[in-house]
Amino acid sequence: MTPDRRRHGFLVALEGIDGAGKSTLARNLAAALRRRGFSVALRHEPTDPRLGALAQSVGRRDPWTGAVYFTVDRYLARPKLEKALRRFDFVVTDRSFFSTLAYQGSALPGPERRRLAELERSATREPDRVILLEIPPRTALRRLGRRPRKRGPLEERRILDRVSREYRSLAQRGRWVVLDARRPARELLTRALDRLGVNPRRGQRAGSRPSKR
For a Cys staple, 96 with which of 13, 86, 108, 172, CB 3.0–4.6 Å? Predict the structure, then answer.
């Protein structure tokens, strides 16, 4: 990993279907980067619980409207995100606009899906690196069943199968890293650090950042 003083912080997005372990890896990754001397901001989408609840409530029957609610949330949160990228070496976000493309976008016909992708990219920053935690929907649902909360409206096998296929399609991009979410948390962290160019055995001084390549 080499310094690049011409740009601001490095935006890392964790993606995957519900139950893949994004929140756990986000926390572990932020802690590991801090131990190596980096400044890190940790965030989660949606940033506004009210907009997130609206998006969830309408998203199943009207995926376009649900996607728009999520997009408004990102647009309103963009100034805070840009500020974090100026202040911190890394910003680790649990979900990004790719979640909307995978969940709501996969339920839309092709032309609307392309319109949504354009809208998302105009509303917020595209991540510098996306880490996709890939997991079979059956396994994810077993994990969700152990959580002490009611399942969300999109947490069912048929929908998660569709979303998983869309994530695999989106991951055919140079900035994506695909990890098997069934692996132990420690192994996932080591692999994520490696793919970010952070050697897990040698600390890096703050101020040096990975390239986008």
Answer: 13
Please check whether residue 118 lies inside any domain of the structure.
yes
- Point out the residues of the chain with pLDDT beneath 70: 1-7, 146-155, 199-213
Domain of residue 98, CATH code: 3.40.50.300
Q: How many CA atoms lie within 13 A of 132 on its CB side?
A: 23
Helix axes 63-87, 49-59, angle to 10 degrees: 150
Q: Residue 10, Cα to own-chain centre: how many angstroms?
A: 13
Sheet holding 90-94, edge to edge: 40-44, 90-94, 10-15, 129-134, 176-180
Alpha-helix residue ranges (DSSP H) falling in 20-178: 22-35, 49-59, 63-87, 97-103, 110-123, 137-145, 157-170
Look at the pTM and tell me if it is higher than 0.85. yes
Let me know if residue 161 belongs to a domain: yes
pLDDT of residue 213: 47
The SS3 call for residue 17 is coil
Give the domain extent around 33: 10-195
CA distances from 196 to 9, 38, 92, 97 (A): 13, 13, 12, 20
pLDDT at 143: 87
Q: What does the block give as tokens for 128?
A: 């510098």
